[in-house]
Amino acid sequence: MQSVSLTVRQIVLTVLSLIVGLFISSALLGSWNEPQVAGKLNLYQTNIMLQGSTLAADPTIPPALYDSLIGKEAVNLAKTQYQEARTTARDTADELQKRLPATTSPAQRTPESDAFQKANHNLQEINLDLGLIQAVQKQPIAAQQLWQQIERDIPGSAIATTAEVLNQLWIAEKPVPAIAESIITKNLQGWFRYQSLKQLYIKQSATAKLKTLESQQISAATGSVYRLATMGIIRGGCVILGIGLGLWWGIAQLWQRRGDLNPPRTEGMVMLRTDAMGQVITNEPHLPSVPWNWETIWQVMLGFFIIGQLIIPQFFSIVIRASGWDRQHASLLENAAFILVSYGVLAIAMIAFLHLSIASYQPINAEWFSFKGKNWVQWGIGGYLVATPIVLLVSVINDKIWQGKGGSNPLLSLLLENNDSWAFFIFMITAAFAAPLFEEYLFRGFLFPSLTRYFSVWQSIGLSGLIFAVAHLSVSEVLPLAVLGSILAYIYYRTGNLLASMLVHSLWNGGSLLTLYLLAG
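^ that's the sequence the OP posted. Answer follows.
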């Protein structure tokens, strides 16, 4: 029996693999019961729809436009969506509460208690809004039960104070406090603020204030309708164009290969096709030969996780403590700048590590990390359009699987909850410029072609897409991001130009952030 001897490098890689594997598993399991940002996105869109629903009788809005964007059952639909969101939020809070150590006091802060408090706060926000919808629909008992639950669960909070005011406005016979208007204005937004102030002014017989409020609401509601229309045009247009382009490409490929019954043959790492006479057809895409082995590939990917998830965070943690900066209470603009700087440091450090790892193989083929090749703009735009309906369809299926759980990129929640134009600009630089440059260089420029030394092209496309998805450390994002990563790898394979996949990646991230900005606006 032949003995297997491991080199020092292999032993180190094995140990680091165990550490990284434990970290990734822990992160994915930790995101298991965290809420997805998609749930918040749905509620934000619901709120915009509610805002626009007050224009039902406005003659300036075309009825067809109103019906297609909002419909006659907007409030009923909103109630259903809030009830579903409440079920998910309650399940999340209950699960996190079970994880709290029995010895934890209410004043003691731990990561577990912070997670529970955040989930419970989210649940009570939903209870507040759902109760208001029920009150408007003449369901006072259901509304009162939700508002009283808020006062029991988080007494003394801004949400509880608002719930008490709403209870007095719709249900209780007590006089409304003088500060009710300021509480409503400060703690409620959009349709919910409008309905509450309307009820307050009716109770106070404040006719002048009521007329001013209705005028302001018409303006806000009109803006909401056109925001919905803008998002519909962007999404619907991309989906329709993407489906049409995908069908056209598929038909074109079948037509181009008509009569070619010979399967491709492989020489080294170059995929070749031959005609009936055995002559090579040279217009088939190909990949450069891979000079390094699995150890180098695994070393680079381990380095990505260790540098990105351990070294860089620890470095900035030390810097933050030394500077005395309180990130928890920092503005959105400060957090956006911090994320951009930390991501830039990660990208520079990781690219340097990548090139150190392959330094012994220099000079390498010029086709590695290539920015050459024609038609990268067409492939970039076309790839984005084709990817849109595919990934959206997968995301719909994914949402059904996870039911609002599984976590999301925290950057999305930051932007959604704080509509700051300058912060949005910095986030856009990070997501639509820095991330595509670095991630395409690593995952498509290095990982995908490296895998073809051991796997077929299609296996390498799928595996590189899966690793790309897992690297985002949110279990609910694995399926849609694996599909997106596979599409990006295929585009790079077809063009041989990283600019093509970078453009698709940039358009995807930019479009996602723009949708968030429109929803948060």
